[in-house]
Amino acid sequence: MMSTNVKKLFIDVYVTIFGVKVIAMNSHRLSGKGRRMRPIMGHTMHYRRMIITLQSDYSIPSLRMKRT
């Protein structure tokens, strides 16, 4: 669970960079996949996924570049 100070910081970043209005932010921790390294079973790194809900009339443009 993220603290409210961190959520406020992320919301401020989205407002200043993208100029959007954030309604809510949720996050959940995804566990890593299992990986076998010879006789030892290991795993890849865990990571956190952020879910950001914007106001209905705002959107963030795609950052992917089209191949030509």
Structural overview:
The protein has 68 residues and is an alpha+beta fold. The protein has a single domain, classed as RRM (RNA recognition motif) domain (Alpha-Beta Plaits), CATH 3.30.70.330. The chain contains 1 helix and 4 strands. It has a two-stranded antiparallel ribbon with strand order 1-4. Strands 2-3 form a two-stranded antiparallel sheet. Strand 2 and strand 3 form a beta hairpin. The protein starts with a helix and ends in a 14-residue tail after the last strand. The model has no long low-confidence stretch (mean pLDDT 82).
Compact overview of the structure:
InterPro entries: Nucleotide-bd_a/b_plait_sf, Ribosomal_uL23-like, Ribosomal_uL23/eL15/eS24_sf, Ribosomal_uL23_CS. The protein contains one helix and four strands, in the order αββββ.
Distinctive features:
single chain; 68 residues; alpha+beta; Alpha-Beta Plaits; two-stranded antiparallel sheet; 1 helix; 4 strands; 37% strand; ribosomal protein; Ribosomal_uL23/eL15/eS24_sf; RNA-binding; Ribosomal_uL23-like; ribonucleoprotein
**Major sheet details:** 2 strands, antiparallel
What is the total number of structural domains? Answer: 1
Which parts are unreliable, with pLDDT below 50 for 5 consecutive residues or more?
none
CATH architecture: 2-Layer Sandwich
Rounded Rg:
17 Å
CATH class label:
Alpha Beta
* Contiguous helical run count: 1
Strand order of the largest sheet: 1-4
Kindly report the average pLDDT value. 82
The CATH fourth-level homologous superfamily: RRM (RNA recognition motif) domain
Provide the helix percentage. Answer: 10-25%
Give the amount of beta strand, in percent: 35-45%
Predict the CATH topology.
Answer: Alpha-Beta Plaits
SS elements, strand count? 4
- Elements, N to C (H/E): HEEEE
- Structural class of the helices, strands and pairings? alpha+beta
The coarse overall form would be: flat
Keywords: Ribonucleoprotein, Ribosomal protein, RNA-binding, rRNA-binding
Protein name: Ribosomal protein L23
InterPro entries: Nucleotide-bd_a/b_plait_sf, Ribosomal_uL23-like, Ribosomal_uL23/eL15/eS24_sf, Ribosomal_uL23_CS
Family: Belongs to the universal ribosomal protein uL23 family.
